[in-house]
Specification:
Number of domains: 1
CATH class: Mainly Beta
CATH architecture: 5 Propeller
Radius of gyration: 15 Å
Structural class: mainly beta
Oligomer: single chain
Strand order of the largest sheet: 1-2-3-4
Order of helices and strands: EEEEEEE
Length: about 120
């Protein structure tokens, strides 16, 4: 059954990188917090990955002050969008696999999977 209080995280129209929509959550629980890695869209094609946390996984989501955390890289394989995060903590390292896309108008020509890593146990350090 769907939660009656949906949505639990909405786009922030005052935040340029996620003003269009927020999608594709990956939630992990760590040390009493629920961490949500999510995709924010500037517009339909421009996507970046951000992070929020909540004590109960339902309400009070606090966005990371350095969002977006993973951004497209100009001129590279992920120059248009980074999205679909999947996150695991391995020892003291956080590992995030994500899709990256680049295109040449008017069609998409490249979509691949990348990896981002963070050494250390704290996500909101």
């Amino acid at each position: 059954m769907k939660f009656a209080g949906n949505p639990v995280l909405e786009k922030n129209p005052d935040c340029l990188w996620e003003q269009h929509k927020v999608v594709a959550p990956c939630v992990v629980k760590e040390k009493g917090w629920y961490y949500m890695f999510y995709v924010g869209h500037l517009h339909e094609e421009r996507a970046q990955v951000g992070l929020a946390r909540s004590a109960n996984g339902i309400s009070g989501w606090e966005r990371h002050p350095q969002n977006p955390l993973i951004c497209p890289t100009q001129g590279e394989w992920d120059s248009v969008a980074v999205y679909k995060p999947f996150v695991l903590k391995v020892g003291n390292k956080w590992m995030m696999w994500y899709n990256g896309a680049a295109y040449e108008e008017p069609i998409w020509v490249l979509e691949q999977i990348g990896l981002a890593e963070l050494d250390g146990p704290e996500l909101f350090g």
